[in-house]
Design brief:
Number of strands: 11
Distance between the termini: 44 Å
CATH class of the largest domain: Alpha Beta
Number of domains: 2
Largest sheet: 6 strands, antiparallel
Helix content: 40-55%
Radius of gyration: 19 Å
Order of helices and strands: EHEEEHEEEHHHHEEEEHHHHH
Strand order of the largest sheet: 1-2-3-4-6-5
CATH architecture of the largest domain: Alpha-Beta Complex
CATH topology of the largest domain: Aminoglycoside 3'-phosphotransferase, Chain: A, domain 2
Length: 335
């Protein structure tokens, strides 16, 4: 893709943050996000990645979100680095007034996108193991530093960009499941134990030589860590519909990531966290077909029906074990 002139807000932010002295800059707009403008920008000192939060997300539904979430993403990046060096891009600066975040640019030549790897059927157990370990390490660090909660007064943002568009929007489509879905919102809100990323999806995870690198922490909040675990595991189930030939590998990664994460939980009983994640996962699964952010690669009605069958049954009769969800998913896939 050819370079284009960078929007003036990015230039102003880079100048005022002391990261550039140029009156105009050129870069390449990056794709993949629905909630921000993201650019790779060439400055006098090299390439940087810059993003600006959008007030209206690029989805079919009418979905708005506060632009100040950009500030809290910057804070999450700092915490992640303190918890596990290299687990997120290095923060270079954040301009609150302009809503622009500047971070290091990670060269695609050395960082593979996990979503693309999974789509190609490359579901590697060591990656799932590393992902579970990194995620629990960040959660553990934040839980030990509970003063961080005051730096993330983002309950309203998290509700507007995650809980409402996923769980409550789905409840409107499924009145018989509304009580269960609404209960999951309360469960998440009532178990605020650590710093949560809020969008632990393969599209936001790069695989580098030192392990997984998490991107896009716009939903960062002090909340229930079970949300991050369930959100990530949800995608491993959904990938079975995108690349069916690798379903057994996806399900094995589901098991490995679960075990890796739970083995490192030291801020509460792992069984309690797993039970909350197991109750939440079917709600998030159903939300990816009937919420405000349907997954783009589930295109056939029989696939949507599969999701609805499995998720609905588990919402009506919940389990406390994540592996039982994977087993129910695999069993229905074969029918």
């Amino acid at each position: 893709m050819s370079k284009a002139e960078v929007p003036i807000e990015f230039v102003q932010a880079l100048n005022e943050l002391g990261l550039s002295n140029a009156s105009s800059l050129y870069g390449i707009p990056l794709t993949g996000g629905v909630s921000s403008d993201i650019w790779c920008i060439e400055t006098e000192k090299g390439f940087v990645c810059a993003k600006r939060a959008l007030s209206k997300l690029r989805v079919a539904a009418d979905w708005h979100a506060p632009v100040e979430r950009n500030l809290f993403e910057a804070r999450w990046l700092q915490v992640a680095h303190q918890a596990s060096a290299g687990s997120a891009p290095a923060l270079l600066g954040q301009h609150p007034a302009l809503g622009v975040l500047i971070m290091e640019y990670l060269d695609p030549a050395h960082h593979r996108l996990w979503k693309q790897e999974l789509h190609a059927g490359k579901a590697e157990a060591h990656t799932a193991n590393a992902m579970g370990h990194v995620l629990s390490k960040i959660h553990s660090y934040a839980a030990r530093n509970s003063h961080l909660a005051s730096e993330f007064p983002t309950e309203k943002i998290f509700f507007e960009i995650r809980l409402a568009p996923y769980l409550l929007a789905t409840a409107e489509r499924h009145p018989k499941l509304a009580h269960a879905l609404e209960a999951l919102v309360l469960q998440t809100q009532n178990n605020a134990k650590t710093l949560v990323h809020g969008d632990v999806s393969p599209k936001n995870i790069l695989l580098g030589s030192q392990g997984p690198v998490l991107l896009d922490a716009e939903c960062a909040t002090w909340s229930d860590p079970a949300f991050d675990l369930a959100f990530c595991l949800n995608h491993l189930l959904l990938k079975c519909l995108w690349t069916p030939s690798a379903s057994s590998d996806f399900l094995y990664c589901f098991e490995v990531l679960t075990q890796s994460y739970l083995q490192s939980v030291d801020w509460e009983p792992p069984s309690a966290l797993e039970a909350r994640a197991a109750r939440l996962l079917p709600g998030l699964l159903l939300a990816r077909v009937d919420g405000k952010s349907p997954v783009e690669y589930v295109t056939e009605e029989h696939q949507r029906d599969h999701i609805r069958r499995v998720a609905s049954a588990l919402l009506i009769e919940p389990t406390s074990y994540l592996q039982k969800i994977a087993q129910a998913w695999a069993k229905d896939l074969k029918t």
